[in-house]
Structures are given as C-alpha cells and as structure tokens.
Amino acid sequence: MEQNETEKHRQIMSAAAARFAKQGYKKTTIDEIVSGAGISKGLFYHYFKNKKDLYIHLYISYVDILSHSIRENVDITETDLFRRLKQITHIRIDFVTKYPNLWGFLYSAYYEEHPDIVPLIKEKNEKLLQESYAGSAANIDWTKLKKGLSPDKAIEIVTWIAEGFVRKAATNNLTLNPEIYYQFDEYIECLKTGMYEDEKR
User: Fold this and answer.
1) Domain that holds residue 163
2) What is the pTM of this model?
C-alpha cells in the first residue's frame, strides 16, 4: 500500500510540475493536475490541502534536490573562480538532462509573480542563488582579481551575467536544452579576461 501511495504521490508531483511550468500557478487547475496524474480528486486531497500547498511542497522539494546536487558535486578544492563556475554550469547541464520537467518548473517558479506564492518562495529563491554562486565560492583564490575588484563585487557580476544568460535562453525557448549551458563557458572566459590580472590567469 505504501509503495502504491508513493507512486501516486510521484504522479501528482510530475503532472503538477509539467503543468505549472507550462502555464504558471494561476492558470493551472487541480482538475488538470489530477487528469494528468491519472488519479481521482479525492486522492489529490489525501496528499495536499489545495493547489497552493502542492505548489510550495513541489518547489521546496525540487530546490532541495538541486541544492543537494550543488553541495555534493562542487569541488571546493578548486581555487580558481572561473573553473568553479564551469563546475556549477555542468551540474546544471546534468540537472536539466535528468529532470527536464523539474527544471522547467523551477525556472517558471523563479519568475512567478502570483501574490499567493511570491512571499513563500522568495526565501528559497535567494538561498538557491546564494548556494549556486556565492555559497560555492569557498576557498577561492581572490588574489587573481584585478585591483579594486572585491570578491563581493565579483560574485555580484557573475550572478548578474549568469541570470541574464538564463533569461535570454528562456526567451529563445532554449532553457531546457543542455547545449545552451555549454555556451555559458564562453561567457565565463570573457568574464575571466575582464576580471583577472593578466599575469594571474
């Protein structure tokens, strides 16, 4: 029975992630989710109180998966900022490949504007961003930076560029294409040229 319930729970999560990613929180209905999951509405309410409860549960669960992947797979013995950034980029590639619906949902949630959702996911958004960039900057050799460029400012620049790149990819419907993240390596090389002292690259 428990195994069957676990599978039903996964079906709800998967169907909801796909629907939310495609049309956002407001337009998605419980009827559409249960239809996509192939379950009854009664079973839906066995697991979740309402659509908002499901959305928050889904978001927290998926952010935790990505955060865990970053923590477990980033090599903090690598002291070069830009080689570390490439590690994170490739973790994202693996994540997109392994969990396409999940990544689509996380991306749409990051830019979700519905007032029922925004306050509840803001903290998690900030945590994920910090772990992806600032939180993965432990043990970096900051002496390579150009004079006058602080580590905090370097992280801020990297974050702006990275998030801008993801926005551009999404605008061109490329967010779920792993190849787009390899292109980010080229951006990283440009950043290195602008942010490192010539003799320390």
Assistant:
1) 51-200
2) 0.71
